[in-house]
Amino acid sequence: APQAIIAPSILASDFGKLAHECSRIIKDEGADWLHIDIMDGHFVPNITIGSPVVTCIRGAVERAEDWSKGVFDCHMMVAEPQKWVGDFQKAGCDLYCFHYEAAMASQAPHTPPAELIKQVHAAGMKVGVAVKPGTEVDVLYPLLDGEGEKPDMVLVMTVEPGFGGQKFNEKCVPKVKALRERYPDLDIEVDGGIKSDYTIEKAAEAGANVIVAGTAVFGAPSPKEVIAQLRAVVEK
Ligand code: DX5
Ligand code: ZN
């Protein structure tokens, strides 16, 4: 399986000192990516931050000493993902991960997933496609097998998107397994309720290699220890 990547969700950090939280989680605590949850109050019943804040975080982490890994993993929980590609590219997003369900239902203008993948690549970003717990991964096979441009990552949600701190839904694990069996080299991300307990064991065993954890990392006395534990389970 591909390399282990630990991506703390900054949703669980202290937004009052966001820039500091972001730079220290990479620089001092050993995270690989920053998972940035963008919610618009339409696709999910919650609002978080938009591209202006991402621009500021980008500036802050790049000014931080020894900054070398710049992966901003933006999880777009928005109803019209095609609308924000340019804004997030300018803000410094590296990986634009949209929800399959949102692209399918998009209206202004309607931009189906295959089309949106092309748009994101054309903007110079990597692209992820996310699925909610109720969406089967089979719907992604045409995108991953087809002639067209392919997603660089699939995100299998292990909670209903919208809030941090929810309980890991074990029913989502077989979806990860099915994807891993079919795509040995694909980056497969899991997000929601993951901790250094049975949840990371299940996710890693099924084949996930990109691990999001919010509460488990930012709520711990030593985020560094949790990040190392999560990594060790994926690399086992
Ligand atoms: C939920 C978000 C997650 C969330 C994860 O909608 O997509 O990224 O912040 O937080 P925990 O790890 O606390 O479930
Ligand atoms: Zn997320």
UniProtKB/TrEMBL annotation:
Protein's UniProt keywords contain Manganese: yes
Family: Belongs to the ribulose-phosphate 3-epimerase family.
Positions that bind substrate: S9, H75, G162, F163, G164, G165, G193, G214, T215
Record: active site: D37 (proton acceptor), D191 (proton donor)
Xref: NCBIfam families: PRK05581.1-4 (NF004076)
Catalytic activity: D-ribulose 5-phosphate = D-xylulose 5-phosphate
Domain of life: Eukaryota
Enzyme class, spelled out: isomerase
Protein name: Ribulose-phosphate 3-epimerase
InterPro entries in the cross-refs: Aldolase_TIM, Ribul_P_3_epim, Ribul_P_3_epim-like, RibuloseP-bd_barrel
Regions that span the bilayer: none
Cofactor(s) listed: Zn(2+); a divalent metal cation; Fe(2+); Co(2+)
Residues the entry annotates as binding a divalent metal cation: H35, D37, H75, D191
Pathway noted in the entry: Carbohydrate degradation; pentose phosphate pathway; D-xylulose 5-phosphate from D-ribulose 5-phosphate (non-oxidative stage): step 1/1
UniProt cofactor note: Binds 1 divalent metal cation per subunit.
Gene Ontology BP, a term: pentose-phosphate shunt
MF terms (GO), sorted A to Z: D-ribulose-phosphate 3-epimerase activity; metal ion binding
Alphabetized CDD domains for the sequence: RPE
EC identifiers of the protein: 5.1.3.1
Alphabetic keyword roster: Carbohydrate metabolism, Cobalt, Isomerase, Manganese, Metal-binding, Zinc
